[in-house]
């Protein structure tokens, strides 16, 4: 089973890129973030025509997450995280597909930091961590993937010293990520490539993609039942070089 995650940075504006990538790579499951579209504007007809079923949790102009599955039934389990009834941002959706629980998330950016946006990010992280613990308790195969907006270590950033004060790399944010992983999750990319420089995001400015001045902020966390079934992982970094593309590259894993 091939599972991918892709921050599309606007599902309608980047629809030709998304459809081309789906056609060329044929993931069994694709988790999308930053749809930037309300529910009624999600391009379900085009997605269906490409051979995929979908569930989505949209929001006008901002955020939004979706799970696509090729020729597979998607049973939605949850949208949104418990713990804050006033949080209306569309950042989390969860489903079960072929016996695997797949969670798709778009974690808050948190900038400028410090400030209320960082506070929201850390509070959202706490809610995610609490929910992730309940998923582990069920002893099911679980994948939590998406744009975490976290640079876990210095290895995951080009010139990490430039990111010291950024909400993606602040100590409390990295600590929140490592606290989540420490519950018993496996970072799929680092399991297979513990010391390699791998990026998933390249800014639009200063020729970041051409210089390979990137960040690794899109992650797959696997529950114990899946960590030994991981057989491959990678980044479709060439997609970042396509015309009118997202500033993220799709990331994928294969599990047996």
TrEMBL record:
Cofactors demanded by this protein: Mg(2+)
Keyword tags: Hydrolase, Magnesium, Metal-binding
GO molecular function: double-stranded DNA 3'-5' DNA exonuclease activity
Keyword Transport: no
Enzyme Commission no: 3.1.11.2
Enzyme class: hydrolase
InterPro entries xrefs: AP_endonuc_1, Endo/exonu/phosph_ase_sf, Endo/exonuclease/phosphatase, ExoIII-like
Superkingdom of origin organism: Bacteria
Endonuclease/exonuclease/phosphatase domain segment(s): 4-248
Matches recorded under PANTHER family: EXODEOXYRIBONUCLEASE III
Record family assignment: Belongs to the DNA repair enzymes AP/ExoA family.
Protein name: Exodeoxyribonuclease III
Species, as recorded: Pedobacter jamesrossensis
């Amino acid at each position: 089973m091939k599972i991918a995650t892709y921050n599309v940075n606007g599902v309608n504006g980047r629809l030709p890129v998304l459809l081309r990538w789906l056609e060329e790579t044929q993931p069994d499951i694709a988790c999308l973030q930053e749809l930037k579209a309300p529910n009624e504007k999600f391009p379900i007809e085009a997605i269906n025509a490409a051979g995929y079923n979908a569930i989505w949790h949209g929001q006008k102009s901002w955020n939004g997450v979706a799970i696509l599955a090729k020729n597979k039934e998607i049973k939605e389990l949850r949208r949104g995280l418990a713990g804050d009834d006033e949080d209306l941002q569309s950042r989390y959706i969860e489903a079960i597909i072929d016996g695997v629980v797949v969670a798709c998330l778009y974690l808050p950016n948190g900038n400028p930091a410090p400030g209320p946006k960082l506070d929201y990010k850390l509070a959202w992280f706490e809610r995610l961590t609490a929910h992730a613990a309940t998923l582990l308790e069920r002893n099911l195969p679980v994948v939590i993937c998406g744009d975490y907006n976290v640079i876990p270590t210095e290895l995951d950033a080009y010139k990490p010293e430039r990111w010291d004060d950024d909400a993606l790399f602040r100590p409390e944010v990295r600590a929140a990520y490592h606290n989540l992983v420490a519950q018993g999750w496996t970072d799929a990319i680092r399991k297979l490539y513990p010391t390699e420089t791998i990026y998933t995001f390249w800014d639009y400015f200063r020729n970041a993609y051409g210089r390979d001045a990137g960040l690794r902020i899109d992650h797959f966390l696997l529950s114990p039942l899946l960590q030994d079934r991981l057989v491959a992982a990678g980044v479709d970094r060439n997609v970042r070089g396509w015309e009118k593309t997202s500033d993220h590259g799709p990331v994928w894993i294969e599990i047996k």
